[in-house]
Design a protein that fits this description.
The strands form three sheets. Strands 1, 2, 8, 9, 10 and 11 form a six-stranded antiparallel β-sheet that branches. 35% of the residues are buried. With 290 residues, this protein is α+β, with helices and mostly antiparallel strands. Helix 9 packs antiparallel against helix 10. The chain contains ten helices and 14 strands.
Length: 290
């Protein structure tokens, strides 16, 4: 299985879709942390979901999905960008035991999902969805229905090694739709997919299995991979926001500032001279990496 996402549409209808499958990128996310199986599975679904959303909104920037909970799992967060880079992390009570088959709702309790669209240019957008459904797919379907007013169905699955997702969306009718029954028909067909099929079959096999009687146009797949957007410059900017007094107080105790990216575990070291340079000019941190 290659890490790719692929768009498709049904000719002469207003229905479009995407299918994503992940293995290497998913493994990279899990390799950096020791997560219980239930959390690993939910992170996998989130990774597939954020890839689908990124391709759907066509944003020149980053898209993030963050699940905030109050019942053992505090945060599940994933991020994607137009270059096909994915990353993810979870924060949870490590003293607790989680049922491997626990649903998203059972893991986080009365939580919420925060969807953030952060374009390179323009205004940042954030939408908040109440966790009113047992699984991520149901919550995101409600988001599209309420916020985007687009009928959307999602099927997500992950098993700790592979992650996959399928999205169908009904676009506004522009009078080119010659098949008014298409939406209900293809949703019915897609609903017959099993988790094992979505994870185990190749993308083309899944599409053939579901839609071989439909006139389906499939586009060139897009490669996906694990990638972290952290950098020394970004960390320097974050340190600058702490303020000169707090940074100098840290230096009095530690003589340097050490920080680590939560996503990829890259360590960043800033000496006293580095920190003073950041205080004076956060946009131009010293290039030396220790």
């Amino acid at each position: 299985m290659s890490d790719q996402i692929q768009r498709f549409l049904f000719d002469d209808t207003n229905v479009r879709g995407e299918i994503v499958q992940l293995q290497a990128a998913y493994a990279e996310v899990l390799a950096r942390h020791d997560y219980p199986p239930a959390i690993s599975r939910q992170l996998g679904e989130l990774l597939s979901a954020v890839a689908l959303l990124t391709e759907t909104v066509k944003l020149d920037g980053t898209v993030s999905l963050e699940v905030r909970g109050r019942q053992g799992v505090d945060v599940l967060m994933v991020e994607s960008n137009p270059g096909g880079e994915l990353r993810g992390i979870a924060r949870f009570d490590e003293t607790r035991e989680f049922d491997a088959a626990a649903s998203l709702r059972e893991l986080v309790g009365e939580g919420q999902i925060v969807i953030t669209l952060d374009p390179k240019e323009g205004q940042r957008y954030q939408g908040i969805v109440a966790l009113e459904h047992a699984d991520l797919a149901g919550c995101l379907e409600a988001y599209f229905s309420q916020s985007e007013q687009l009928a959307t169905r999602l099927w997500l699955s992950a098993d700790g090694e592979r992650s996959a997702g399928l999205l169908l969306q009904q676009l506004p009718d522009d009078h080119s739709n010659k098949d008014p029954d298409a939406w209900e028909r293809v949703v019915h067909l897609a609903s017959t997919i099993t988790a094992d099929e979505l994870l185990g079959l190749e993308r083309q096999e899944v599409l053939y299995r579901l839609f071989h009687e439909e006139t389906t146009r499939v586009f060139t797949p897009k490669a996906l991979a694990f990638g972290c957007t952290c950098s020394r410059e970004r960390v320097a900017n974050a340190l600058h926001t702490l303020g000169a007094d707090e940074l100098r107080e840290i230096l009095e105790q530690e003589r340097a500032v050490e920080t680590q990216c939560h996503f990829c575990h890259t360590r960043y070291h800033f000496s006293a001279a580095d920190v003073e340079a950041i205080i004076e000019s956060p946009q131009a941190p010293p290039p030396t990496v220790h």
